């Protein structure tokens, strides 16, 4: 197809197709008739619409998707950016697949070091790819976060000699890792740095970028739908210009290994229009939103709230010092029609974006400042105890399993991550033995059943 001179080639193509009012003798079956609303813009890979993850060596490098991805790559400062219409989960699988390829090419161990607060998709992808995971456990016993001591990391990498380090930053509580320092350790040992940056797409557009690609990561994923105004399922896989060229060459194939062959063109249009928004408005909008959240945090801290994390567009309250269980506190807000991203017994997490109106932030401030402070709840979060591994992850995932009540799981081997999303951080990973400490953790977080190897 002829190259379009546009910042939104995918949207332009679809809009032109809608105007043609063509007889749609192709998929999808709704034929453009509105049932939910966006059906007219929901097309398939018809002539001229390009092919996501085109594996044809003679494929059109000027196709509308490739044009749009190149624009995104320039905006994010990556050597290569690929779109995902299946969230960061697809990108995580592709990153691990490429790490496995890299290990084989360079005769390295198929081993990944990862802090324990990794998303369950990391665990299942590692199992499918038969990657060995060496866990970096939190020093403070917090399940959802994991501080990384650079000296300890240096020693662990030297001992284990993994092909890659995989980290989650920002984490669900809004903590941002020292990616620049971590990258220095990785480069010292010739180890890849892969970052789950699902919550941090906007970090690129702060006055000083703190995006992983700018701080030394080889590859990272961003979920555009989490902190940018994109539709759910919109995500990016970014590859650094300093990464081995094999990743750029293999990225499309790696994504295609795990992706649907029926990508959502509505989500592709959402990613496409993000380029226009990023190039024209996002920096000013991010600065304004971050300033509002910073002011909100200051007022709450002055009022006696305990805050967690350093992410500019996330507010995490540690509620027990204020006298409330986190889940109960979230219910109080829900009664005021304020819906939080996440809560557990200890924390309430709220996520903001440039699309959060200033008046909404003010309403939240008035509501939070109007909630009376009660006597501190002394019960602390349960400390996470590293379980014993009995089977490797792949063996456990593929083993026959059964669902049992938590109280009957002591001594059994975990067969699947028993945790909801959010935060999707497993308490016991597949192949590990469920002990009394783990059962107490399950009960603390309200998990009643789990999958165990039969």
| Rg on CA atoms, Å | 23 Å
In the CATH hierarchy, what is the superfamily of the largest domain?
Type I PLP-dependent aspartate aminotransferase-like (Major domain)
Which shape, going by the Cα principal axes?
Answer: globular
Q: What is the CATH top level name of the largest domain?
A: Alpha Beta
Could you say how many structural domains there are in total? Answer: 3
How much of the residues is beta strand, in percent? 5-15%
Look up the CATH topology of the largest domain.
Answer: Aspartate Aminotransferase, domain 2
How many E-type strands?
13
Discrete helix count: 15
The main β sheet shows up as: 7 strands, mixed
Low-confidence stretches: 1-5
Task: Describe it.
The protein is globular, with a radius of gyration of 23 Å. The longest helix has 21 residues, at 282-302. It is an alpha/beta fold. β4, α6 and β5 (192-196) form a beta-alpha-beta unit. α11 (282-302) runs parallel beside α13. The protein has helices at residues 9-20, 64-76, 87-105, 120-128, 150-160, 179-189, 212-215, 224-227, 245-258, 265-280, 282-302, 326-335, 358-369, 393-398, 436-444, and strands spanning 80-84, 111-115, 132-136, 164-168, 192-196, 219-223, 235-239, 306-308, 314-318, 342-343, 347-351, 401-405, 449-453. The strands form 3 sheets. The chain has a 7-stranded mixed beta sheet with strand order 1-7-6-5-4-2-3, with helices on both faces. A 4-stranded antiparallel beta sheet has the order 8-9-11-10. It has a two-stranded antiparallel ribbon with strand order 12-13. It folds into 3 domains: 41-280, Type I PLP-dependent aspartate aminotransferase-like (Major domain) (Aspartate Aminotransferase, domain 2); 283-369, Aspartate Aminotransferase, domain 1 (Alpha-Beta Complex); 393-453, Molybdopterin biosynthesis moea protein, domain 2 (Alpha-Beta Complex), CATH 3.90.105.10.
